[in-house]
Design goal:
The chain is built from 5 helices and no strands. By secondary structure, the chain is mainly α. It is globular.
Length: 101
């Protein structure tokens, strides 16, 4: 939840709390069940999860809860429905677009 200062509750976590979230995300990103999504989310997590802020980490966790088939279709189409249509989704898509060049 965002307070008056614009910071979310996750922003107030100590850095070791964010590190635990980052580690959990990396594990979940590589254990999707659909190999294509493992590569999309796991590859991005390995490369960039350390630089994500608390809000982006929350968006990543929400994306990890999405159904693999649907999320894969969103990445193939280059857009996702709300609430998954976030700057993080765009970062992940751009990361893989750059990697494929």
């Amino acid at each position: 939840m965002t307070g008056e200062s614009g910071a979310s509750a996750a922003d107030s976590l100590p850095s070791n709390g964010l590190d635990l979230i980052r580690r959990r995300i990396r594990v979940r990103a590589w254990r999707r069940g659909m190999r294509e999504m493992d590569l999309i989310l796991g590859g991005f997590a390995d490369a960039r999860v350390g630089s994500l802020n608390a809000a982006e980490l929350a968006d990543f966790e929400a994306l990890l809860d999405a159904d693999d088939d649907k999320a894969f279709a969103w990445f193939c189409a280059g857009s996702a429905p709300a609430p998954f249509d976030t700057p993080l989704f765009e970062k992940i898509a751009a990361f893989h677009e750059e990697a494929s060049r």
